[in-house]
Structure formats: structure tokens, C-alpha cells
Records
---
Amino acid sequence: MRAPQRRLPALIFVLVLAAFLPAVGGAFLSWDDGENLVGNPHYRGLGPAHLTWIFTAVHMGHYIPVTWLTFALDYLIWGMNPAGYHLTAVLFHAVSTVLVYRLAVRLLTAGFDAGGPPPRAIPLGAALAALVWGLHPLRVESVAWITERRDVVSGALALAATLAYVQAVEDAERGGAVRRGLYWTAVACFTLAVFAKSIVVGLPLVLVALDVYPLRRIAIAPREGTVWGRVLRVALVEKFPFLAVAALAAGIMLVIGFRWGILAPVSHEGIAPRLALAAYSVLFYLGKTLWPWPLSPLYSLYRPVDALALRYLLPAVTGLALTAVLVALRRRWPAGLTVWVAYIALLLPASGIFPNGPQITADRYSYLPSVGWSILLGAFAVWAWRAWQAQRLSTPIARAALAAALVLVCGLTLLTQRQIAIWRDSVTLWRHAAWADPDSDVPLFYLGWALAEGGRFDEARAHFEACLARVPASLPALRAQFTLHLALVDAQAGRPAEAERRLREALALDPGHPVAWIRLGNLLWARGAPEEAARAWSAALERAAAWPRYQVWELRAAVAGVPEASPAARARLAFALALVLQEYRAHAEAEEHYRLAVRLEPGFGAAWNNLGVAYASRGRYADALDAFVHALRLQPGETGACANARRAAVAVGARPHELDGCRPEGT
């Protein structure tokens, strides 16, 4: 490789770093950054307690220990300065772009015959592929949003896994052996990738597609039995470690998704709507890749989904037609089918097959699936170079193509910098989202909260009132939710009487809303009505069975506002919140609330018992036994505490006398 070409990776790194450097000036956003980072002390360090949380916590419906490790390191270096967190994401993305370049060099070299393109063409085509991918404005959400660190971490690791795999097997087709060190490096990188974000579980299918083309390890249409044996060996036996890791990660993802209510069961969202949403997303990202404007942090999903509506029917027909064409051209143009299969495999977990959240699509889901399209563009550049060298393409056309490539890279860079400016703070972000999707109430909700957090209460109130005005009377629960948030804005603005009136309106619409009851109790206590406050808190506790239907962050914030000067109420509400947190496997946070409950109300036997369960789940059996003993002193012979205490006693080799009051086992 010539000296200028050897410097291409460094040049690519610098260009991407420079393009995304403005993101370093961004703030923590009022979109999960508070829940994940600003209000979450558990990841802040690498001590035993931090590492236990990192490797065991399912936080906000995600199990991403590798990503949490990067956040822990960020905290040790930067503290809570958002600039450092942003810089780490930018560096990850710049490294990923270099990995795309190196992967493109390998794949383009394998795809073109040795006598075809001149040596310079492949590195330049790979550089174009890397820059188009790395500088595309669709990448901004993954890089500029701190919470989405999981995209850039899993993306870098998945790209490293793919590159290591290609290097491991590229000699096998020529009679050489698979390079085992690189092969297991690929498996290790893939394992880390899925535990940075499980969305990359489709990578094994991508590797099989690459084995077909351009690596040519599997025949496109095998006929002989020996060839079929090779297909099975390469596609299944050789991929077994990858498939096993993918199956484990997918299983964890599905269990967590259904448990947290993130994924809708088939009974709630039928097969036809899921397929319609999947077809829509496949064409959506392809369209935004070609025309990346306008982009939004939230593309709202409007239900019910009519699979026969033109919005969904047209993408489905187009997708099927495109698939049929690429299958028909698989011999003449195998690269097209490989890119299409890789795109679908990587996009599938984030498609409408598994609907989650209020969005129909999200820019971040295109991070890894779009790599193939960029490499295909690089392949076209190599082909054009070869055609020009063979005088099948005139010099003016070749110059026009070169100029178009430069304009494309520069244009994408400008759009990316414009998109980064949108992500600099919460108000700017959600104001843009409200403009991009004027029919959706969700951006108005986020914009209202961003304005309130910035002390702009009149603007926040106006936005929430606009949301409320758009909700029909046939949706009382949603009207109650917006009325609740109007009350919270009034409370923040120092208008407690108006806030109380709003809370009562919310409860008239949704009498079971626990957050409204707790917040009302807090206001009543503050204005000197402790008896009324106690009744409001009791009403919330009476409805504790319904708490999991409401937002955990809202419950947490409401309970945190209950004064410890009313210890019994605060203890009981903390206990009820801990039950919800434990149901969602947020064991460390649940443990904190159980500890608070027993500190404020030492005679709360159920809280002592559940605190012991929380300790035992983390292997702290001595502390667990002590908690169970406290529970038995308060409630001698209580069946659950007896069973728990026996197990903890066996674990620590002790026999507390409080067990004497328990019934013998088996009776």
C-alpha cells in the first residue's frame, strides 16, 4: 500500500472526529439521561458494589453491562461533566468508522477479481464507504445522545467481530486453515457486543451472508452432496458459538422486554400489524439514508395499525418486489442480495416485529444496518474507477462522479453538524421534534418538561395545555396524565393552590392514579393539613397493586417528595415502590427503599423480610439472616420469614433461636 493510502485510516479518524466534535458541547438531556446517569449513582465507580450492579442490574428494561463499564470509566475520569461522556461517544464512533474502512477494504478486495481494479481503487472506494457511513446525519442520534452510548459501543465491537472473522477465514477458501486466534477474537468481540446492546444479535446471519459473497465459501446454489456438507459446516457448525451467544442474548432481551412491558405480546399487537410495521421500518431507514431530512428524535407510532393502509401497504409491496429482484439477480449481482440480507438481519430486532415504546422508528436503529449500503457505494466507486481505467467510462463522466462523491461527503458533513446542533439541549431537541411531527403529542410533553426544568414555566404550561386540548374526552387516563404534569409545573412555579386543583382534576379523570394521590398528599402536608395528606397517601397505598401500570420514574419522584417527618407514610410508600422495583429486577434500588422503610419504621416486619430477600439475592446471606431475624422478632412464626431465615441460616452455618418459634419443616 502506498504511503498516502496508509494514512487513510488516520485521515478518516480525524475527519469524523472533527465533524462530531461539536457534540462535546451538549448537555445531559431530559430523555432518559436523568434516569440513566444524572440520577443514578450505581454505575459511578468500579468498586464491588458498583460492579455487582453493573453486571446484575436490568435498568430501564436493558441489560447492558459492557456499556455500563464504559460509563463507570467516564465517571472516574470526568465526574458528571457531560462533555467527557460526549467525547467518549465521539471517539467510539470515529474508531468504528475506521473499522468500517478496514472491513470495506477486505470485502472489496474479496469481491473484485485480482486483475480488476488498480491497487489505488479499493482503498479509495473503502474510504468513501467509511466516510459516507461515519458522516451521515443518521449517526447523530447514536453519538450525540449520551444514553445511546450502547449503540456506539456495540457497533464498534460488532464491526471488530466482523473484521476479525473475515480475516480469520479469508485464507480458508484458498486451501488454508481458519485462523483460530482471530476466529475466537471474533466470538469474544461479538459476545461483548451483544452485552453492550443486544440489537446486534443478527450478526451471525450477516457472517453467513458474507460467506456466500464476497468470501465465496458457500456456493450460491449448491447441488452436490459434498457441497451441501460444506454449507452445513460453514453455516452451522462453524457459526455455532456465534449462534449460541445470539440465542442467549435474544432470550434475555425477550424475557426482559415482556417482563418490563417494553415489548407488546402478540395478543396486543397482531401478526399483520407487526409485519406492516416491519416493512415500514425497512423502507423508512433506506429512504432516510438516501434523503436524511427532516430527522427527529421521535417518530410517533399511531395506533391502531391498519396493515392495508397505503402507508404500510406500499412499503410492504416495495420490499417484496426489491427482494424478488435481488434474488433473481443473485448470480449476476450477488453483492446486492448480500447487503439486503445483512440489512434485514441487523434491523430485524428493532423493526416492528417487536414493537416497543411510542416510536415507529428511530434514527439510532440504523447505526449498524446501514454499513452494508455504504460499502456497496464504495464498490460502485471501485467499479467506476475500473471502467475509467479500461476506457469504458469517459473522463468527463469520471470527473463528474468524483465531484459528486466529494459533494456527497461535504453535504453529509454539513447536515450532520446541523443535526448535532439540534441535540445540544433538551429544549432545542424537543422543539425540533414538535416541528418535525406536529401531529404527535409526545414531543410537546417532552418539550414542556424541558422548559419546566429550565425555569420557563409559562412556556411549559402552554405546551402541556396544548397537549391536553388535543386529547379527546374518550381517553380520560391520558387526559389525567397531562393534567398531572400541568399540576407539577404549577407546583414548581410556586402556585400550590393551582397545583392542588389540577391534581384533583386528574384524580377525577383517573381515580386510581397513585402518582396524583402521592403528589396531592405532599402538597397537603406542605400547606399544613397532615390529616388530609395522610388520607391521600393511604389512597395511593390502597391502589398499590396498580402501581406497575404507571411510570416508575414518576412514582420514584413522587415518593421522594413525601416528608420523613411523616415516617410511617414515607416507609409504607417506599416499601410499595420497592415491590415495583423488585418486580422489574432493579434489586439494588429496591434494597435502598427497603432499608429506608425499616429505618423510618423499625417495626415494619414485611419490610425487614423483603430487605432480607434483597440481601440474599446479592449473596449477602449474613445480612439477610439478620433481616429475617428482625422480621421474626416482630412477627414470630411468620411462614415466609421462617422459610427465608432457614435458608439463610444454612448458608451461613448458624441457628438463631428465633427459628424455634417456627413450625417444623413439612408441617
---
Amino acid sequence: MEIKTIQPFLQYFANVRERTMRVARCIPPDKVDWSYAPGKFTLGDLLRHIAVTERYLFAENILGRTSRYTQHGKELAGGRDDILALLERLHGESMEIFSKLSDADLLEKCRNAGGLEIAKWKCFGRWWSTKFITAARFIYISEFSACPLPHSMASRPRKRSRSHA
């Protein structure tokens, strides 16, 4: 994905985030610590990871700073409502940073998480190439059928895990 102008990207990003939030709100509060297997990310871990990656990794890189991502544990937010609030707060901080970018800023260099210098637009593009997180969260959430999958995911086959702990 090549990003030449910031405003369409910000709108796209806002739409993706709203879809994420709709699905996140469907997590039953008593399932936030559910995982498909011991030692794997829980639903809460996934959501905290999304929140802190956006703000403390990508937004920091866009600002020309190194990542401040240190963890995605319950220390940040434990229950579902606290996790949703964390997602909203950190997303707001990120959008404030991103909205200050000009189209010309997208051509400037920043260091990505691996330390390589790349154009800022490529940092955004690489960020969206990690959409596996999107797929993972929808697969996890679909375990509970508390609400339907977004239309874009509804036609994809899904596997049911054997564990419903």
C-alpha cells in the first residue's frame, strides 16, 4: 500500500479502528482472558497489543523516536471495559500525532521497529501488512458468536478450536 496523502489514510485507519472496536465490544467480560491454548495471547492480550503497538511503536517511529513498547499485560488494563478505554485513549493519541503529518512529511525518513530508515509512508504501509492481527482477532472473537463478524470477514471459513476454556 503506497500512501501519498495523509487524509485518505487517516479516514481508512479510522474505519479499520471502528471495525476493530465493534468486534472488541462483543467480547463477553468473562472471556477477556480466554485463549485458544495455554501460553498463547488471550483476547485481552490481543487488544492491548493492538493498542500499544499503534501508539508506542508506530506513532513513536513516525515521530522519529525509538519504540516505547515494553509489554501488553494486564498491568495496562485488566477488564474488558478498561481495555476498551485503553484502546480508545491510545488510538486518540496516535491519531493526534498522525493528523499533524503533511503529505510532504510522508516522504521523510523514520526508523522502523527493526532500525531501518524508511519513508514514513512505508512505515504505515508495513504496519498494514501486519493484518494477520486483524484475522487473528476475528477468529478469536468468532468463538463466542456474541455478535456477527464484519461483512468483510463473514464469508471466510473459520476453524473452531477444541478448547473453550
---
Amino acid sequence: MEPGDPGTRAGVRPKMVGAAADAARRYRPGVEYYRNGRLKPEGGTPSCFGLLRPGYHLQILPRPWRPATLGRRAGHSSARERATALASTHVIGRARASAEDSDLKRLATWLIIGAISFNAVLCFLNTRGIAISNVHVILSEALLIFMAAVACRKNINVIHLSIIAIILLYTAALCIIRKVNTPADGFDPKIVRDLLIPVIFFLLGKAVGHQKAADRIVFIATSIVLCFAIFEYFFLDIFLKVFGVAEYYIARGTLVDSDHTLNVAKGLMISGFRPEGLGGRALLPFLGDHRVSSIFLEPISLGNFGTWVTLWAVLRSRMGGRPYIWCALSGLALLILSDARFDAGFLVLGVIVLMLPPRLTTLPLFLLPFLIIIGLYIFAVSAGPFDGRPILEGVGVYDRLLYSGRVLFYLDAYNWFGLETARANVMDAGYAYVLSSVGIIGFAALWILFMSLEGSNPYFYAFRNVMAVYLAALFCISASQFTIKIAALLWFLLGVLSVARVNDAIRSPARDVGARVVGTRFA
């Protein structure tokens, strides 16, 4: 079609769009076009889309032509073409990686929310008449751990696999030995799950690796938990009709099926109320004796969650240079509603540790749990002798610390090395539980491994050190830090921080003091 032909205005080039326009931009006059190694006759158009260009007639070709400069052999691409092809491949690769990254973030969100809420789902089903047992809880946790491992499989290297294999083999061997030495207690692999949760969800956080994604997960989780907490506090009767908490824990085997248990619990977990006879509410007493459990179904986990949401808000406020007000206020509200005295005291200490330079707190924290074990042991001995097995005489801090120390004193040499099951109840004595499960050698190795984790910024070390204080302190009175309801989110956040990038002005190029001493590079 020439200028001035019918259907066009004289001297006006027809407008081309889409693939035809792209082909026109690639075409250059004075360039020969080849097809299957043979020179194309002059006058044709190098396009399979019917290119309209002044000075050339229209010709539709069944296959695209390959341009080649004069005197160049057909089939040899120019440097410009190779660069274009490489750039196209790079763009496609980045788009594919971005899509995979978005899918991973969505999956991580569902896994964290699932870890927080699956007990509530099982409780709802049990209330609706579907029989739930402890087997369903174990299978649910195993499924969450497996899916998290699959989600981060591309970021697991040989070192990670080696550590996971050592943990599995070591803990499984101790479980078998305990089964042989104390057949009456049966085979209990719970410690295997307890140690896999931190490793797998830490690696999942490393795979996600972006603090904004972590912020979004914390926001979604906090919003869900806060809505359930408000619903439970103001509409308790309706809440218990939807979630029969006491019946659920009886079905799991956590509570004894008796009228006394139901009367004390009043439909909730047995710690769901704190009447005046047991000391009453410590945080804002005018709120009443009810300790809110929310989606966790027991107040201790809600208090732990609220504490860590608040600490995350403090940390992110320092990292981002702007206050995370909603996150901090929501965490404090959850902490107050749960009336968790330990978490309230720890929150103050945690904020102080966050503000201190990590190089000042790392080395003392290497020794902290071992010093606490010695202190509890001495405290139990100085409190005087006791008859029979240790029993928890009260719910105050003194009574709980005394019980924890007496359980440690009650352990024999086989218990200290994880070769026999402890004869006392160790769930309210975290150190006794860990020592009787993995032994003093295994506990020391795991603690050193944890304190030697490395990150890309100083905020990781500050958060890790706060976690160290939390674990070491909570072990005095409980082993609840192993529950997936809290551990999944906590270790995920630590994993995100280990690879998070911050502004160059505040990034610390030096490695952590503890990591330099130990020389381990698990992170």
C-alpha cells in the first residue's frame, strides 16, 4: 500500500499496533531476510502478521523471517539479538520468581494462621458432635510441620538437612532407650515434634525473608485473635456454646473427666478463671476473674502471643522509623485480657533487652539457662526436705519456682541424661522436661546452636536475645514455649529477621559476638 492509495490519506503512514508495530520497530531498511537459510526475494514484508509500512507491499507469510545483516551467514544471531533474548529470559525468570515468592508468602500466612487456630477448629467440631481425640491433634500438627517443610524445601541446604537428621536420630534413640528402661511409660516421641517446630518454621521464615510479609501475617493473626478475644469476653455464654473448651480438653486427655473439673473450669480451660481464693486477677482487677483464652482456648498462650506481638511492634518501630501503634496496643490488650503475670513482667524485661546492643547481652545469655538450673536446685535444697514426689502447692511465683527446683532435685542420673522418663510431673517444670527428654548434653548443644544463629542485621540479634531470655525464664515454670500455637509464629519471625535487609545506614557489618565465638553458621 503506497502513500495516496485509496483508503489512506496522502503522505500519512498507517497506524500500527500490537505485534505488527513490534515487527516494524525491529525491521531496518537495507537488511536482508532469510528463511530456512535461503534469501527472501525483495519487496516482501518481514512479518507473519501482514505488516503495513509505506514503501512495501502487503504480504502474509506463514512463518516469521529472521533478519540478518548483509554479508552475514544465515543462522548466526547478532550481539544485539543475543542481548535481547537474554533480557527477555531474565524478565521471564524474574516474573516467575516473583510469582513463586507470592505463592510462598500466601502459603506461609495460611500455615501460621493454621498453627494458631487449628485447636479452635477441632474444638468446634467436637462441640458439634464429631468425636475428637489426641490423635487428631497430633495429625494436625504433623500436617502443618510437613507442609511448612515442603514450602521451604528450596531453601534447605546440606547443613540444615544434617541438623534435622541429627535431631531426629538423637531424640528417637533416646525415646527408644526410655521405652526399654521404663516400659510402663510407653513410647512418647513428643520431644521430636517439639524440636522440629523451631527448625522448620525458622527455615520457613528464611525462605519468605521479607519483614513486610511478616508484618502482614502478624496483622492478620492479631486481628483474628483480638476479634475472638472480644467475642469471648463480652459474650462468654454464646462462646461456650460454640466452643466447648473443657469438653475438648477432656476429649484430648488433658483434663480429667469429672464433675469437679467441669465445675472448676466453668466450661473453659481450668486456668480460665482466677478467683480471689487463688489470688484474683493481677492485671486490671476490675475486669473480673475471667481470663480470656480467645482462639488459643487457654489464657497462657494468649498472654504469650500478646507479649510477642507487642515486642514485634517495638522492634519494627525501631527498624522502620515509624511507630506500629495498632500492633502494640492490640498486643497489650490481649496480654491484659489473658491476665498473664509472667508475660507482663517479661514484657518490661524484653523491651530493655531490645534496646540494649546485642554485643552486651549475647555472652551472658550463653550461660543464663545453666545458671538458672543451678539456682533452682539450690533454692529447692535450701527450702527444706519434702516427702514423696514433688507437688505444686500453689499458683504463686514462689510456689511454682519451688516446685520446679524440687523436680530438678528429684531427677536421678538417668533422667539428667535423658535415659529414663521422669517420675514427677514435668509439664510445670520446663527445665526438668527438657533435661529428661534430651539430656543435659543435648540441651547444651541445642542452646549453643540457638545462640550461634547468625543474621544480616543487628535487629535479628536483638530479637534472638530476647527470645533467649524468654525461653530461659519460662522454662522455670512451664514448657508451653514448645506448643506450635506460639512457637510457629515466633520462630517464623526470627527466620524472617535473619535475612531481612535494612537501610545501609543502620546495618551492622560485623558478625555477632556469640556467632564469632562458636563459629556456627546455621542461619
